[in-house]
Specification:
binds coenzyme A, Aminopeptidase, two-stranded antiparallel sheet
């Protein structure tokens, strides 16, 4: 039985009161386990924010959020392709909820880049942006992997400077540029942070 209490996030406004427990390391079981096997309950209490594993309905909501948002519109992602990504059981998804309302999500692969965790996608509903929820989701993901990993990676499109600024504020640095990677005329910037 493996269990750990994630490190308290550095932001004073967030209190972590939950516990993650699993029969195996999260790095060995990238899919969310059934309820009762993996229980995650992190509460950003000051903002009444709960970050919990996504169920299938959450994954379908996340795909719809992606399909109607930048940068995925410019990248040509349809609802069908977003559903494929979001339903992929190889990827962990956590959803941030305030009360009963879904605010945002983060999609993760435990070994996505040279064996290290990869933050594949993050999005927050328009109405909830700029309130720290994206920061909470990223810090949650870092805390989730930190006991088992030394590095974290993500990609950001060259035409998404606001998201890149957020990642840089959180300590990510560009370590590569994939030119014309998803669409012609745009790069994906590979970002790295030492956990
Ligand atoms: C990027 C995103 C997840 C951040 O979530 P958030 O809850 O708004 O983030 P926070 O409140 O913690 O931080 C705010 C910062 O996020 C970034 N941000 C805010 N709105 C954004 C938007 N529409 N697109 C990209 N980045 C944005 C900015 O850096 C902002 O800081 P600023 O207000 O000083 O410019 C969210 O804005 C979003 O879903 N954007 C659209 C999808 C996207 O770009 N995802 C990233 C793909 S790599």
């Amino acid at each position: 039985m493996h269990s750990f209490l994630p490190r308290l996030p550095p932001r004073g406004s967030v209190r972590v009161v939950g516990i993650i427990s699993s029969t195996a390391s999260p790095l060995l079981s990238p899919s969310p386990s059934p309820p009762g096997v993996l229980g995650v309950s992190l509460m950003a209490m000051a903002r009444d924010l709960h970050i919990v594993p996504a169920d299938l309905a959450d994954r379908e909501w996340a795909a719809r959020l992606m399909a109607r948002s930048e940068p995925w519109i410019t990248l040509g992602r349809t609802l069908a392709t977003c559903l494929l990504v979001c339903r992929n059981p190889d990827y962990l998804m956590f959803v941030a909820r305030r009360g009963g309302t879904r605010c945002g999500f983060v999609l993760l692969h435990a070994r996505g880049v040279v064996g290290s965790p990869y933050l594949a996608t993050i999005a927050v509903e328009d109405a909830f942006r700029g309130q720290g929820i994206g920061t909470d989701l990223i810090e949650f993901a870092e805390d989730y992997f930190r006991p088992h990993a030394r590095h974290m990676f993500l990609c950001v499109s060259s035409f998404n400077p606001r998201a890149k600024a957020l990642y840089e504020r959180l300590g990510y640095r560009q370590v590569g540029e994939l030119v014309d990677y998803l669409i012609d005329g745009a790069s994906e910037h590979l970002m790295h942070k030492r956990l």
